[in-house]
Design a protein that fits this description.
With 411 residues, the chain is mostly beta strands. It contains 2 helices and 39 strands.
Length: 411
């Protein structure tokens, strides 16, 4: 069994544990209650249910649950989410300082600059899901203070973020790391940031690792998604089935280091490349990166890019790239790079209706059956929509006619 196969089995086991366990009693409160005091009286397995209305922050959650009995703080009605309001500058709206906490179905924002919505400190088994974040002055969801394991950030909507939307791990890769991270099904619409800040959609720092899956990231200042890799050869990040559109200064997906698997993603109309591998800070970590069955279209500085030197074990296979005239769909051959089964769609139509975000293969598409199959666990067995891959597979993210992208945008 390969290292990647072992890692994916372990990751599947982790995801099997990321479910809401059985809980104890539920207690409902209204906006007149002292929210923070109520949260910090919860015992393992208990739920605090918030009726619609505005609740006052900030709050530090210091009392958590247990692995099979988390505490839960949730909205009573998904159509009328309770909003956590904090207009100050001296704290963050919610600080999670205890393990096994679930925050579900709440609204956050706007906040002042440098005020985060949810900041996680040294806690394991924390889930933030089905929440809305609007006009956050700092970071919507962040864990970059101390080690965190088993963090789940799922099905949230972040709009008009005034800096990076999601930030995980410590920049130096030493002070802290985030492991067992799942970032799935989120929608990020609009990220600005004052110079010299970058303004990412999702970033995972050095020596942290994640599964980043099925997110839609639109109109960021910096990269839609960036991972920095790990110095540990067994620490693999997986980036799959994401859509990144409209980065104003960077690429849709940036890989600053491996090991990493990047597959079944769609990146279009970004200022630089669709997918870019970069030797960030000359760390020499662009190795063991597998880029398969992605679709990149009309990114201003090319399709898929890699550094000119210093890479090893990089595989680019079965992708579909429509480049802007005068740019390259794929990198030239070099030592440490393997390429096969890729299709250059720049000069000929491959897609059903790309301007309407339908990247299905058209009737006479050269994508059909153009891919190859490699016998390893990194190859996608299904496509962007979960459709089983053929033999040989279609190149690009979408195996067969499936219609426009389901961007799941909300008013």
């Amino acid at each position: 069994m390969s290292r990647l196969e072992t890692w994916l089995i372990l990751a599947a086991g982790l995801l099997a544990l990321v479910v809401t366990p059985s809980t104890g009693g539920a207690r409902e409160i209204g906006p007149e209650a002292n929210l923070c005091a109520e949260i910090n009286t919860l015992s393992p397995g208990e739920e605090l249910v918030l009726a619609p209305g505005d609740y006052h922050g900030p709050c530090a959650i210091r009392r958590g649950g247990a692995p099979t009995a988390p505490i839960v703080v949730r909205g009573a009605e998904s159509a009328h989410r309770p909003r956590i309001v904090y207009g100050g500058r001296d704290a963050n709206v919610i600080e999670v300082r205890a393990s096994h906490v679930i925050i579900r179905g709440l609204d956050f924002g706007p906040t002042q600059s440098e005020v985060d919505a949810v900041r996680v400190f040294g806690a394991d088994g924390v889930t933030i899901e089905n929440c809305h974040f609007t006009g956050i002055g700092a970071i919507a969801v962040v864990a970059n203070h101390s080690n965190v394991h088993g963090l789940v950030v799922r099905n949230n909507v972040i709009r008009d973020s005034l800096t990076t939307a999601m930030y995980f791990g410590c920049h130096d890769g030493i002070t802290c790391s985030v492991t067992g991270l799942l970032v799935e099904g989120n929608v990020i619409q609009g990220v600005t940031a004052p110079d010299p800040e970058i303004g990412y959609g999702i970033q995972v720092k050095l020596n942290s690792s994640a599964i980043i899956r099925s997110n839609v990231v639109l109109n960021t200042k910096g990269p839609g998604i960036m991972i920095y890799g790990s110095r540990a050869a067994a620490t693999v990040s997986l980036v799959e089935r994401n859509v990144t559109i409209g980065s104003r200064t960077s690429s849709g997906i940036v890989v600053g280091g491996g090991p990493a698997i990047v597959r079944n993603n769609i990146a279009m109309s970004n200022e630089q490349a669709g997918i870019a591998l970069e030797d960030y800070k000359n760390r020499g970590l662009v190795r063991d990166v597998f880029v398969a069955n992605n679709t990149v279209y009309k990114n201003r500085d090319g399709g898929i890019k890699v550094p000119e030197t210093g890479i090893s074990g990089v595989t680019i296979v079965n992708n579909a790239a429509g480049a802007v005239t005068g740019t390259n769909a794929y990198p030239p051959p070099q030592k440490g790079l393997r390429m096969a089964g890729n299709v250059d769609c720049t000069a000929s139509g491959c897609f059903a209706n790309p301007e309407k975000q339908d990247f299905s293969p058209n009737a006479g598409s050269r994508l059909k059956g153009a891919g190859i199959f490699l016998g390893n666990a990194s190859m996608p067995r299904e496509d962007f929509f979960g459709v089983r891959r053929g033999t040989p597979p279609t190149a690009g993210a979408i195996e067969r006619p499936s219609g426009p992208l389901p961007l799941n945008l909300q008013p």
